[in-house]
Amino acid sequence: MNEKEIKAIISLLEDPDTEIFNQLEQRLITCGPEVIALLEESWESSFDPLSQSRIENIIHKIQFDQIKSELQLWDLKNSEDLLEGLLIINRYQYPNLDENNVILTISELKRNAWFQLMYDMSPMEKVKLLNNVLFREFGLSGNTTNYHDPQNSFIHSVLESKKGNPISLSCIYSIVAQQLDIPIYGINLPKHFIIAYMEDTDKPPLFYVNAFNRGQIMQQNDIYSFLKQLNLPLSEEYTMPCTNKAIIKRVLRNLITAYENIGNPQKKEEIDLLLKIIED
């Protein structure tokens, strides 16, 4: 469809006939993101609440379809890029965000650590350096006041507010570390996501790091005791690094719980659809 045809369809969105509207809506949705600018232009010039509400819903459906496609593509071809996976989830809540702000902040954290990084540092010294840059200088901390707030799962919001949940803080920590060639990876520990320093990929982690508690160092015995309290086995699933796909799935599950807690069934259902994409 050309611009004239699209504008003609948009002008009919005020039609009270639901069946006609559904047909018009579907035609616009199939056009994809290209029609969003024209829809927004129509919304701004409209004084009809019904038309405005319908336009908002159509834009959201188009953007949500785009996110589903991007997540599916990430799962198939780009799952080694954890930051990109987190940015796709971020687009669900912030579709018009300039993502360069996130990328620049991550780069700045990396640069601040790199300036102080020395070749002969021990693993523990490297982690202490990262702890200082991320938690003391930048000011990241665990959001203990609003632990289940959905914003804790969106990387843009976490970097802006400097507060997050265990998995979002662990993701930022591991992304910065890996960009510095420091082998720190996510550990899918039940109830509390953490990270680990992997000196040798064929051996257990050298030690673990609790990003939610400002980089507290944990040993293998601490993890075993925690699993024992939960009556869980000492499985590699809980003690060895997990995939980026497993991390993104856990971020989505956290969001489902968060939206359930605040009573938002529509967003809960949409996030559940995103989770199904990578579970399948």
TrEMBL record:
It comes from the Bacteria. Transmembrane segments: none annotated. Pfam families: Transglut_core2. Residues 105-253 form the Protein SirB1 N-terminal domain. PANTHER family: F-BOX ONLY PROTEIN 21, SI:DKEY-261L7.2. Belongs to the UPF0162 family. This is Transglutaminase family protein. It comes from Sphingobacterium bovistauri.
